[in-house]
Amino acid sequence: MEETWGFIDSGHNSPGFNMALDELMLDWLDKGEIGPTIRFYGWSPAGISIGRFQDADKKIDFGQASAYGAEIVRRQTGGRAVLHDQELTYSVVVPESHPAMPRSVKEAYSVISKGLLEGYRELGISSEFAIPESSMEKTDSAVCFDKSSWYELLVDGKKAAGSAQMRKKGIILQHGSIPIEIDSVKLFDLFSYPSLEIKHRAREAFKEKAISINAATGKSFVYDEVKAAFKKGFEKGLGIKLEPLALSDAKLVEINQLAETKYKNLDWSYSTEK
User: pTM here?
Assistant: First the structure.
């Protein structure tokens, strides 16, 4: 018999709201207020999420971010910066003790990422897991999609989804970005480079490293189509049934309060002393 998990379809919200809700999902699961849950969401306005320990001052072009109307928010999870624009974003919370979850972070990625693999298949896209040649590979790039990590998804050898994971209170939180379209000019405008020439070279090289759903298919999928495909994908990949979970007025107040006091707070977003 399939296990039932919660499904939150929270739509498009501000970067601060999105990161606050991901954090609170972990807390609610810890308190027993929800069970294992998957959430899908978008970003309005577009946002740049920076890794928990990333130095934003050295990597982000704040003037360009303001010009594009992109808001900056720091994630709880580590890793490099991600531009969240024309994409489907997912988050998963599940107890570390869940029988389907391996103890190691790397192997837990492999289990959760089966949902991504099946989601791409629902769209007619053949994808595979990334197995890096060296876990010690270094890169100076601040851009998440410049490099694949273990069990992230590749399409035609290019990174198609970027994910990050953390564990707290015995709970796994994994969230990630599934680009529907990638505007590489906008993306690289938002990051700082020593010169325009270096930025141009990095942008050209990026074309061989990352791919969006629409570039992979030659079609023009929209958010709702991608969301439906990945909902089926997670159900199939994890062997679960997703049941809609509505956010009460009280929970919405809680989310907005945390967004205002933490994720829109400059001390959180720009300090690396976490």
Answer: 0.90
